[in-house]
Design brief:
Length: 363
């Protein structure tokens, strides 16, 4: 079986790595990795390949940034050429980014079967581009690898045949559990800030709804400044967020808050170390909601919806939107020992990729 695996962003790489590792003993599965270049900065791409011990992609399309329509169209045009030349038996896609949607549409038009890793996640907020990508990808896929029972039920309610759905767990957990020992063995960033493990909060912000709207980004800057009075914060600054802070005249506000330590984007291993040694995480990332749940780190999500509701029932995650009062109450609860105990999630055990490979082998 010849499989084209399409990636384009850092989270895609974290989902691809365990699948390739699990497939190594089976030469009958041949993978051709295509990197669209949706994230093209070295700090956003190459370093993750290195940290995850992934080989260079077989094909690199160098698409770069652009509007959703422009980026998706460019990826589709380039991928069509690759798929026609390679004639794969299947196309494997990951998550909910534009590269995922583009690859799925091209494969469907060419009558190539699609397998979707991370199927069934729903935020039920169609103002999020990722939600549109998830829905379209799932309804065009022949194999849907779901992360949880909630995801399975979402797919069934949408009328997707049960025999296409496979509950396998979350491959991001596979990567986390595999890489954590190496991550903890690395030097950290804390000494230069005078911070100790457990003595800071980790922040990531990059979602369009949070950073591309001046009023929303202003609310987040105010929220972080207020939280930092109770707990120092470390903020690896996403290039998109950095650009918007400058564009909206908000970057200078951080200079007035010495307890917010801004650093350059970090690789996967460094991020794991920063997360594991933090007291709490403030984020709008979907992946970090999963990772904090596994690491038992309180997560405060700067959104009003999530495609990972399991983390809410687990007790590790809480939705803040951008509400300052809610954020301060949650931080106070964490710092004063009032955060609830964590419950386990079925199949978040580091073996999701093995289950995916077993399904492919059975075809």
């Amino acid at each position: 079986m010849k499989i084209i695996a399409v990636i384009g962003t850092r989270p895609n790489m974290m989902k691809l790595a365990p699948v390739l590792a699990a497939a190594k003993p089976y030469p009958e599965l041949s993978f051709l990795v295509v990197h669209t270049g949706q994230h093209y900065d070295h700090r956003m791409s190459d370093v993750f390949l290195e940290d995850l011990e992934l080989p260079p992609p077989d094909v690199f399309l160098e698409i770069g940034s652009g509007s959703h329509a422009t980026q998706t169209a460019r990826i589709m045009t380039a991928l069509e050429t690759v798929m026609l030349e390679e004639q794969p038996d299947m196309v494997l896609v990951f998550g909910d980014v534009n590269s995922t949607l583009a690859a799925t549409l091209v494969a469907a038009k060419l009558c190539l079967p699609v397998a979707h890793v991370e199927s069934g996640m729903r935020s039920f907020d169609r103002s999020m581009p990722e939600e549109i990508n998830r829905i379209v990808t799932d309804h065009l896929s022949q194999l849907l690898f779901a992360t949880s029972g909630v995801a399975v039920q979402n797919l069934i309610k949408e009328g997707i045949p049960r025999d296409r759905i496979h509950l396998v767990g979350d491959v991001m957990v596979d990567s986390l559990l595999t890489c954590l020992p190496r991550a903890l063995d690395r030097p950290g960033y804390l000494d230069r800030f005078g911070l100790a493990p457990g003595g800071y909060g980790l922040v990531t912000v990059h979602r369009v709804d949070n950073v591309d709207i001046p009023g929303h980004l202003d609310e987040i800057v105010r929220l972080l400044a207020a939280v930092s009075r109770a707990l120092p914060l470390v903020l690896p600054l996403h290039p998109r967020t950095a650009k918007r802070l400058e564009e909206f005249g908000l970057r200078g506000r951080f200079r007035e808050v010495p307890s917010i330590h801004i650093i350059d984007p970090v690789g996967y291993l460094d991020m794991l170390k920063l997360m594991k040694e933090s007291r709490l995480v403030l984020t709008d990332s979907g992946g970090l909601q999963i990772e904090t749940s596994v690491l038992d780190i309180p997560c405060l999500t700067l959104r009003n919806t999530t495609e990972r509701p399991e983390t809410l029932s687990l007790g590790t995650n809480r939705l803040l939107h951008r509400n300052l009062e809610t954020a301060l109450k949650a931080v106070d609860q964490v710092l004063n020992g009032g955060w609830p105990a964590v419950k386990p999630v079925t199949l978040w055990d580091g073996k999701a990729a093995e289950r995916i490979i077993n399904v492919l082998l059975a075809l």
